[in-house]
Amino acid sequence: MGYPVVLLRCPVTFALQPVWMKNVDELLDLLNLESLEENLFRGNSVTVGSKIVFGGQVMAQALVAAMRTVPEDRVLHSLHGYFVLAGDLERPIVFQVEPIRDGGSFTTRRVRAIQKGEVIFVMSASFQKLQDGFDHQIPMPTVSKPQDLVSWQELATQFGGFIPEGLKRFLNMERPIEFRPVELINPAIPVKQEPFRHVWMRSKGAMPDDFRLHQSVLAYASDYNLLTTALQPHAEEASYESVQIASLDHAMWFHRDFRMDQWLLYAIDSPSASHARGFTRGSIFTEEGKLVASVVQEGLLRVRNM
User: CATH number of the domain that 125 lies in?
Assistant: First the structure.
């Protein structure tokens, strides 16, 4: 199956809207950047419960900005980003795209996300003209199917009386992505866990056939569940409320085609934590077992001064 690539939707009028997103259509609107001039775009923000811009949002928007400058026959195969400063929810974000190279097979772009004259996020992205070659992959882990699991919101409904109020609010938040965890960890009982996690995810609602949109939404969703996996071996020493968590960098590689409105398994592990940083990795599979993307992230894990 090839990669369907069509133009991203036309820009809409820019407006700040710090509200929840209930479905993927609202996320697609958020990613629908306003074109200011050549290689210059502007986007707004919505909250995911934090007082700062969600890292997955600015990364997905930067990716859309890069895609707007790339020929349609080039498909994203990797991105590498650094989160430099916390983003302000109440200010627009300007995305400046720098064309690095347009080669015979590969196209490279660098994107800077800017607020108040300062860079808050920087990303390099590489696109490739599709070519045939060797093909192999690791097998998907054997886990429960998403149809046999419950979502974050269903967990909050079933166990709301037994979990901390802050976590209950987090699980109950409206999101454009549905998450169904395979392993159920009781946050009210801090028990040390191995640093492995498996989560099924898909968009809330059907998506267009534009493969670039599916990649952008997956980039958004990939920023969930990573760093909390690095905390699992330290549950007896620190809770989510007592640790400052922030993404430092994020890299993705896209291997094969997929649809974000169909179930994807996010298989995550954390090989190491040291020097107030946690290192995490993720492999993303279709329900049929096809490996479609790989993710690596390092983030800040710092115990707050109580």
Answer: 2.40.160.210
